[in-house]
Amino acid sequence: MQEDRAAKIIRLQNQLEGLRTNFESQWREVNDYVDPAPNYFQGNTPTPGQKVGDKVFDDTATEACDRFVAAIDSTLTPRSQRWHRLSINNQKLKDSQITQQYLDDVTDIMFGVRYDPRANFASQCSELYRSLGKYGTCCLFIDDDLGVGIRYKSIPLAQIYFSENAVGRIDTVYRKFEYTARQAADAFGEDELPDIIRKKIKTEPETKYWFIHAVYPNDEHNGKIGSFKYTSCYVCIEGKKIVSEGGYRTFPYAVSRYKTEIGEIYGRSPAMSVLPTIKMINRMRKTVIQSGEKYANPPMLLPDDAEEFGFSGQPGSINYGLVGSDGRPMAMPLQMGGNLNINLELIQDAQQTINNAFLVNLFQILVEAPQMTATEVEYRQQEKGQMLAPTMGRQQSELFSVMIERELDILSAAGVLPPMPQELIDLGGLIEIEYEAPLNKIMRSSEAISILKALQTAAGLAQFDPNILKMFNMPEAMRIICDIWGVPADVLKSPEELAQMDAAAAQQAQVQQLLQAAPVVAQSAKDMATAQQIATKAGPGQQLGVGL
After folding, report:
1. Rounded CA gap, 103 and 471, in Å?
2. What's the CA gap between 147 and 181, in Å, rounded?
3. Distance separating alpha carbons of residues 175 and 165, to the nearest angstrom
4. What's the CA gap between 522 and 515, in Å, rounded?
5. Nearest-angstrom CA–CA distance, 134 and 31
């Protein structure tokens, strides 16, 4: 039974490899021209330390890819700020200070674990974005390292094969990788390995073997607590043996694509979209280099009998017999045709095309007009944010949503999270993710700008009619702006606290009014008492003011 399952996994692995042959041929070319690296595609196993980059004569694509990586890192996952928070789609609980504080506390714990130096998240993000820019597909493995915490690892695309379910969500990942015999024994235990590998552990421990890590939906999952939603199997191809199996409650591989075409599951990258231009600019740059060499060190034209005199082109050399009787030199450089300026103009056009594909110009918001006003900056940011939203939003949906779900599952199982409020439990504990990366803030900034512009206009008109300001619910306007800008919940007072403060202020004002009125009332009472005493002594007639 186990051998049948192992054989089935190996067959599916072979099928998945065959389905992406055309993609791998493109990825190999991208690898040659954009950020050259050893090529592991199409079953190729390069020698460690192998020389790369022989085909590169122009660095435009490499530099554009580097800028692409840095720009996405700063706009999606900046290390200096919280770029997402947890939320709840219930207005009543959104106004609950207890629930909001719980969500903020959980978010703080997640960021603390994620950016722990041992987690390796920050460095792996750069690898993810580079894979996205070069190949259009990236994969992050979120591992529960017992006793240490969460570990993050960017998996090379050459190792990853996957498929989608009926709704287009990736739910099956096969990772094909190599272990030495010693590594395999350390990872799975010597007793679990096939006989052929066990024999090599003592004699040739550095011999490498292929393994497959298959993660796919568990058909027997019934939704009960403790059951695994996904099956996990490690298969040794040599010997067709399952060496380890288990499961996951949440999907451990977060796979994201830059963009996809109809009928394709692997992504297409900026580099792939302009690959012909990248290859062309390298040919043009090579031509320019060759032309420059010819101009700097051109071929020489010599007379037929120059060989008997000898000729040297070395600096300071003396050549006898190569000056005619009329004083003209008999050796002269060959004048080459062509126009280098035209080639350089074509190269500049190609560079612009490559930079546009990698969104370099979109990320440089202030490059063209650094003297813009703050309002102009805001409008340009909105424009760039709208253009970046389709591709960058996909990373948040496919990559980080899967990652955050996995993180919450691991932290909850480890007992690291604080107790969930009862009011949130009553609603099923459904938590949403709100992204607060700079890109999202740019996209939402239009709402805050509209509110601020309306208030600014109202303030000007209030000079003529003060009642205009009564139209605005100032606390609610400020709450919306703070929500857009990602102000932490513990900084703001809840509506209940504001109501209590208003009631206390009203009561204090009433007491103050009574205290201010007390001297007047006391004096009035004293005057009335004095008048009454005088009237009593004067008698009834005088009291009425009537003379006898």
Report:
1. 33
2. 25
3. 18
4. 11
5. 8
Decide: helix, strand or coil at residue 273.
Answer: helix
DSSP 373-441: -HHHHHHHHHHHHHHHHHHHHHHIIIIIHHHHHHHHHHHHHTT-SPPPPHHHHTTTT--EEEE-SHHHH
Q: Are 255 and 138 in contact (CB under 8 A)?
A: yes
What is the C-alpha to C-alpha distance for residues 494 and 97, in angstroms, rounded to an integer? 6
SS3 content of the chain, % helix, strand, coil (to 5): 55, 15, 30
Q: What is the pLDDT of residues 294-310, one digit of tens each?
A: 877 888 888 877 776 67
For 17, 199, 243, the CA distances from 239, given in Å and listed in that order, are 20, 13, 10
Q: Which pLDDT belongs to residue 47?
A: 74
pTM of the complete model: 0.79
Angle subtended at Cα 355 by Cα 55 and Cα 28, rounded to the nearest 5 degrees:
35
Q: Kindly tell me the burial class for residue 392, based on how many C-beta atoms sit within 10 Å of its own C-beta (0-12, 13-18, 19 or more).
A: buried
| Structure token pair of residue 404 | 């955050």
Q: Amino acid identity, residue 268?
A: R
β-pair partners for 176 = 212
* Residue linked to tokens 């450089």: 333
Q: How many residues does the chain have?
A: 548
pLDDT band at 65 (very low <50, low <70, confident <90, very high): very high
Question: Would you state the structure tokens that stand for residue 221, as one six-digit string?
Answer: 């999952």
Asked whether 411 and 109 are in contact (CB, 8 A), the reply is yes
Q: Are 408 and 110 in contact (CB under 8 A)?
A: yes
What's the rounded Cα separation, in Å, for the pair 471 and 459? 12
CA-to-CA dists, residue 74 to 70, 126, 133, angstroms: 6, 10, 15
Give the tokens for residue 50.
Answer: 């192998």
